[in-house]
Design a protein that fits this description.
By secondary structure, this protein is mainly alpha-helical. It is built from 7 helices and 3 strands; from the N terminus they run H-H-H-E-H-H-E-E-H-H.
Length: 197
């Protein structure tokens, strides 16, 4: 946590564009700035294939979970239904997913990954892995595993908080929850654009 500087403290000159130590001492800022940089590089990687982050996310979800309805996809990804529909429509036009009405409930439209979509996802994962390797270059293999584990733990906590069933944690120092005491050969076909997630 950031500690306020004492009165009369002398501040050392820092390179232009580098945040002061008082800002770098804020974990919230570091998470925001690091996430922003990671998102920018990931966006560049996906844009080379004519895709966005939500396209990759939906392809990965379908590869993992199998056929899902649009409603289920929107719920699992916490995604606006209209945005989900536009993104799926783009993926369907590219041949990466197929949509069909559920025979038992004609109101439900189910989405499934196609063979072309599975191949596209494999190529995307390769490029995304290279981007991730660059982002985590300062860390050793062991440090990357620890970092990933900690990120998943924080993500799980925030997802529980969003769902309304997160456990209550005391803040450091004994304070209670009330605070009182982020065209090249073999490239993929472009997909219709939509608002970035």
């Amino acid at each position: 946590m950031h500690q306020p500087s004492s009165p009369g403290a002398v501040h050392a000159t820092r390179p232009e564009g580098v945040p002061p130590s008082s800002v770098l001492g804020l974990n919230a800022y570091l998470m925001y700035a690091t996430g922003k940089a990671a998102r920018r590089r990931l966006t560049d990687t996906l844009t080379a294939h004519g895709l966005r982050l939500w396209h990759l996310t939906i392809l990965a979800m379908l590869d993992d979970a199998g056929r899902l309805s649009k409603g289920d996809l929107a719920t699992r990804l916490d995604m606006n239904q209209s945005d989900l529909t536009r993104t799926v429509t783009g993926l369907e036009a590219a041949g990466y997913v197929e949509c069909a009405r559920d025979p038992s409930d004609r109101r439900r439209i189910e989405v499934a990954l196609t063979p072309a979509g599975r191949c596209a996802l494999a190529r995307l994962n390769s490029d995304v892995s290279a981007t991730e390797a660059y982002l985590l270059a300062p860390l050793t293999g062991e440090e990357r595993d620890v970092f990933a584990s900690l990120l998943r733990r924080v993500h799980t906590h925030l997802e529980q908080d969003r769902a309304g069933d997160a456990p209550t944690f005391a803040a450091p120092g004994g304070a209670g929850p009330d605070g009182g005491h982020d065209t090249r050969p073999g490239s993929l076909r472009p997909v219709g654009s939509r608002p970035s997630p």
